[in-house]
Amino acid sequence: MEIERVQDISSSSLHTEAIPLEFIRSEKEQPAITTFRGPTPAIPVVDLSDPDEESVARAVVKASEEWGIFQVVNHGIPTELIKRLQEVGRTFFELPSAEKESVAKPVDAKDIEGYGTKLQKEVEGKKAWVDHLFHRIWPPSCVNYSFWPKNPPEYREVNEEYALHVKKLSETLLGILSEGLGLRREALREGLGGDLAEYMMKINYYPPCPRPDLALGVPAHTDLSGITLLVPNEVPGLQVFKDDHWFDAEYIPSAVIVHIGDQILRLSNGRYKNVLHRTTVDKDRTRMSWPVFLEPHREMIVGPLPELISDDNPPKYKPFAFKDYSYRKLNKLPLD
After folding, report:
1. Distances (CA, A) of 75 to 8, 80, 109, 169, 188
2. Residue 256 · residue 231 · CB < 8 Å
3. What is the maximal distance between C-alpha atoms in the chain?
4. Which of 2, 66, 99, 296 makes the best surface tag, with the fewest CB within 10 Å?
């Protein structure tokens, strides 16, 4: 069964100025109606090169408690490496369809790795204006190179180098967040599985859309992950829900956007927020983003850390194996 890719739908739709009905959102979701147009509060930006480490730590913790999202600059990932990561990803999505389909997610696969289109089960049967590529990049024991593009030839080298940098940055941030809870620096890292935790790369490809006022690249969601580290291209589109409004996120070149995901929410017993966010699309330009999801391994049971639980602070979340949590969330099943 051939799956229709959004990139192909985009190519045919641009001549008609119309999009298929399944991409048209209800009025309560349409970005033209629901995006806040007044003065927009800025998502916190943290400069990790600030020599005042206590100030950096306070900023990371405050942003995670109040927003669940922040941007980091001077984060240690070379700007040139981010450019190369984006270049090899863009080159892959510009290849002929047959070449992209060679790393497609098998139709009957339980796992999400590979090139694909549909991911989330949506209540109203709507579709998101996006194609994607998933593959794990760390630890080496869980990397499956059959889902890594062979073209361009430098794709593997760039992603392997990026994996080392993104791992280092995530561990720095998890250490700060652990200490912000009054715990050992390793607490959250261990709560996500320690050395067995997995880093999943995703490339989102949002092609031009003739009706960006009606469609969404990705509908409103929180990430399944513990923490997500994302770099976008220069085309804006990320929106964050805060104080009952959808706000546009500012694009800062070379910044890494950090999302607190469901598992850190649950490990911290609700102290840190999981950010509700979505993606809009552009009429004329392709938006792309490269999130890396730091996730527990499938069998890891995640719930509030025991050190945080007391009579005054009872557990707010039920522990789940990550595979069961993911299945229940993606299939809209109860999580309590």
Report:
1. 37, 13, 36, 7, 20
2. yes
3. 63
4. 2
Q: What are phi and psi of 114, to 5 degrees?
A: 120, 175
Within a domain: 321: yes
* Percent residues over pLDDT 70 in the chain: 98
Question: Which of the following is catalytic: 223, 242, 262, 273?
Answer: 223
What is the DSSP pairing of strand 245-248 with strand 131-138?
unpaired
Residue 221 is among the residues annotated as catalytic for this protein: yes
What domain count does the chain have?
1
pLDDT, tens digit (0-9, with 9 covering 90-100), for 228-257: 999 999 999 999 999 999 999 999 999 999
Flag whether 121 is in a domain: yes
Residue 1 has pLDDT above 60, yes or no: no
Q: What is the pLDDT of residue 175?
A: 98
Residue 336 in domain: no
Tell me the pTM.
0.96
Q: Determine the average pLDDT of the residues in 275-281.
A: 98
**Beta partners for 292?**
201, 229
What CATH code is carried by the domain that includes residue 177?
Answer: 2.60.120.330
> Mean per-residue pLDDT for 322-332?
92
**Residue 202 is a catalytic residue:** yes
What confidence tens digit (pLDDT) does each residue in 157-174 have? 999 999 999 999 999 999
Mean pLDDT of the chain: 95
Instruction: Give the whole-angstrom CA distance, residue 270 versus residue 317.
Output: 8
Q: Of the listed 62, 118, 126, 221, which one is catalytic?
A: 221
Which one is catalytic: 105, 132, 167, 202?
202
Q: Which of 105, 259, 273, 277 is catalytic?
A: 277
Residue 88 has phi, psi (to 5 degrees) of -70, -35
Tell me which residue range forms the domain holding 35: 6-331
Cα–Cα distance measured from residue 162 to residue 6, given in angstroms and rounded to the nearest whole number: 27
